Amino acid sequence: MRRALELARKGWGNTAPNPMVGAAVVSGGVVVGEGWHVQYGGPHAETVALEAAGHAARGGTLYVTLEPCAHRGQTPPCTEAILASGVARVVAAVRDPTPPARGGAELLRAQGIEVQFGVEADEAIELNAPFFHAVRSTRPWVVLKLAVSIDGAIGSKTREQRWLTGEDSRREVHHMRANFDAIAVGAGTVLSDDPELTVRLVDAPRRAPLRVIFDRELRTPATAKVVRTARQVPTLIMASVVGAQLEPLRSQGVEIIPSKTHADALEKLRARSIRSVLVEGGAGLAAQLLEQKLVDRLVIFQAPLLLGDGSLAAFGGLTAARARELGNLRIVSRRNIGDDVVTTYDVSRR
Predict the structure, then answer these.
(1) Given a cut of 70, is residue 158 above it in pLDDT?
(2) Which entry of 46, 67, 280, 291 is annotated as an active-site residue?
């Protein structure tokens, strides 16, 4: 199953709105076929793995990271390929939560195939968190990413624009972007950093993430990169005010979406089929989203440097009560990337 999960990750950035799925066929203790869902609309992982295995699949076990589908969408049901292959057993990490696709396990069992669930289930759910979250929520899966110093700051006393993390971490951020439906920042980040919010340092995803600016007072200038390139990469501004500044933005292709609150803005994004949002700052927006319990995962890239007195604290905008609530978060993962330490925290339970 761990190998199947490894294969599933090969679909990163290319399968949405479908989940990433990997599969491995084992016979006699040997892997005889492997596959993954390469791209949205293409063959599913089970079909690819079974075709690779051929006759060797007969009597073997199919390991797959998600329950095989039982419905006909852009491809035939995976259950048909499984039944035709002659495998005796299917081990799936987790059930499919979507009504149209689920039910494959019952169909296979009715035909005499043994089906088991639960192997590496937590990792399988984490891999496709936006997919599972979309079934039960009216807002997207929100991941807040921040680069901080050892002393927990995101900017120096002078507020000069500078990289905190190394090149490997910056490449990893672009890799993260590739698998999100949208990338979001606050107006303050647009004004201070003038970011592009695009995927550049890695292979391009199947479709470019939507760019979202949380800018209630419409402070985004018409000269900003995200505005000047809005006809090439779709760009939305979530605003609570309207005025004369609308026309210069709209004339360059920016769409303005009225929203009363951050929760309202996120629900409107979800209504547009946006199921995952990567928020990249700044400190004000980060604090507001954490304060309002609108963040599911917090990803901290910590660089080995001190910014000292007067620096901009990453979580200085949190109330003391909310900061206490966020104490002792569960660590989902932690690893070194170059000289930086990257930790993912589970915020959804707080």
Answers:
(1) no
(2) 46
